[in-house]
Write a structure and sequence with these properties.
The protein is α/β, with parallel strands linked by helices and 497 residues long. It contains 17 helices and 13 strands. The chain is globular and about 70 Å long.
């Protein structure tokens, strides 16, 4: 039995920094100790500690001494790296999609070669480990890689992630042809896809991410809120995979294991206490959200440009909804529920109801959503979306939590607590996020959400709260968005801007 191929192949792509490096080591220990019995783990770890080199290796259960270094398998650090990237000239920068593609191919190519033909029962998972929602962010690194070449961004955007997966040699799978009679055999349609992608990073359970990944994985596992530095409970997850149950059932159970692992943790001090949340999604059902979301965006635009009452009602619904990451992302279900309470008409209510029903349907889009919120007060429903709005109360709470050493989300104010610095930092993040949003071709094609943010949401806030734009949103970003609307209107009408 030791010669049989593993039932699960996990690829773990890790980006550390001065805060996370040692937590990454603890995750690697759990992955090493849990490998075997049907689970093989391949990892790439890029630490940021002084001159530490990136590491690439694998665990297959043959590591007998669990007290030894997790890096004991390689004679030197350089040897392990060269082995996996032999034949390439790539330097390790985890924000480069080509590096992720090469890492995936270093695992999948040998399994698909004639000498190592893949077992049809093998499952594949990709775990992205690091900061979020600026995925695998390394803020301490300059905007150049180790070869001195300039890097476009310091994190892996959803568009870059999609590109990395598009170019990768993902496992070949086969879907049976529809309409076959009982007992009839016929070759199915071949396609390339992972069983799941898990994002061990904060606040990555977003419609934007799910829409971009739908062609490359069956399931996605991610949190709407912060992920503790201790990360996913890999010992429990690998034990779960070893016990079988298939990809769907395993993905369904992982959020519960995650919640159990942190159920005894105490909340951090300060007002900005985060929740333990984790959801598993069936990406094949993401259109149950994106289709009515497009209808919602169209109806919100019609209402916003028609009357003041509607604009105020939309702002009220957003301000009352659960949000994340300095108010940049909102729980899409709670936002829709609050919109429906504003009595803005049947077309809008219908779109909101369809989104709510899609999130609540059993065994559909949301396989499992776990949170440690009190019974009857659940506000994290599994999926967020970009819709920036920060209330005065939230701003005050964030400043207070940073002053006493809270979340550390905005390091610029961790020592001073300055309102000006807080909102400057937030405005910079908004500008980056909207640049990333513009590159999400699949998501925007299905939802028109970028147009909604640039034109409708900016217009609503500029009309109703012009003196508070830097508190709630960003005056600069609002101006840029509305100027682009004016320029587009001028071009279409043939009038100079």
């Amino acid at each position: 039995m030791t010669d049989q191929p593993a039932l699960w192949t996990l690829m773990v792509y890790m980006s550390g920094d001065n805060v996370l490096d040692n937590f990454a080591i603890e995750s690697l220990k759990q992955l090493r100790d849990g490998a075997g019995k049907g689970v093989t783990v391949h990892y790439l770890f890029d630490p940021n500690y002084q001159d530490a080199l990136p590491r690439i290796d694998s665990y297959d259960g043959n590591q007998k001494n669990t007290n030894a270094s997790v890096f004991a398998g390689d004679a030197t650090k350089k040897e392990g790296l060269a082995k996996a990237l032999r034949g390439t000239n790539l330097r390790i920068n985890t924000a480069d999609p080509e590096v992720l593609t090469t890492f995936i191919n270093s695992v999948t190519r040998p399994l698909h070669s004639p000498a190592g033909a893949d077992d049809k029962n093998r499952h594949y998972g990709l775990i992205l480990w690091g900061h979020g929602p600026e995925l695998l962010l390394d803020a301490d690194q300059p905007s150049k890689d180790r070869s001195g070449a300039r890097v476009d961004g310091k994190y892996l955007t959803p568009a870059k992630l999609r590109l990395a997966l598009k170019d990768a040699e993902l496992p070949v799978r086969e879907r049976p042809k529809a309409g076959l009679k009982p007992g009839e055999k016929a070759a199915g349609e071949s396609f390339r896809k992972l069983d799941f992608i898990a994002l061990d990073a904060c606040s990555m359970s977003m419609v934007e991410v799910a829409a971009e990944l739908q062609d490359y994985a069956d399931f996605m596992i991610a949190s709407q809120d912060d992920v503790p530095d201790q990360s996913f409970p890999y010992d429990k997850i690998l034990s779960l995979l070893q016990n079988g149950g298939g990809a769907r059932e395993s993905c369904r159970q992982i959020p519960q294991e995650y919640k159990n692992a942190f159920q005894d943790y105490f909340p951090a001090p300060g007002p900005a206490v985060t929740n333990i949340t984790l959801a598993s999604l069936d990406l094949q059902n993401i259109k149950s959200i994106t289709v009515p979301l497009k209808e919602l965006a169209i109806e919100l635009r019609r209402l916003a440009f028609s009357n003041e009452k509607a604009r105020k009602a939309i702002i009220h619904a957003r301000s009352a909804s659960r949000d994340f990451v300095l108010g940049l992302f909102v729980d899409i279900d709670e936002f829709c529920l609050n919109l429906a309470k504003e009595n803005l008409g049947n077309p809008l209510n219908s779109a909101c109801e369809r989104i709510h029903d899609a999130l609540k349907a059993q065994d559909a889009l949301i396989l499992n959503n776990q949170t440690n919120e009190p019974d009857g007060k659940m506000r994290c429903h599994g999926l967020s979306i970009y819709l920036p709005y920060l209330t005065a109360e939230e701003s005050k709470n964030i400043e207070e939590s940073l002053t006493i050493g809270g979340t550390g989300l905005v390091t610029q104010v961790s020592k001073g607590g300055s309102t000006t610095n807080l909102h400057k930092s937030r405005a910079a993040r908004i500008a980056e996020t909207e640049k990333d949003l513009a590159s999400l071709t699949r998501f925007n094609g299905e939802t028109n959400w970028e147009d909604f943010i640039k034109y409708t949401w900016s217009y609503i806030l500029a009309k109703e709260e012009p003196m508070e734009l830097d508190l709630h949103y960003s005056a600069q970003q609002c101006m840029l968005n509305l100027l682009s609307l004016c320029e587009a209107s001028s071009k279409s009408s043939g009038v100079a801007a």
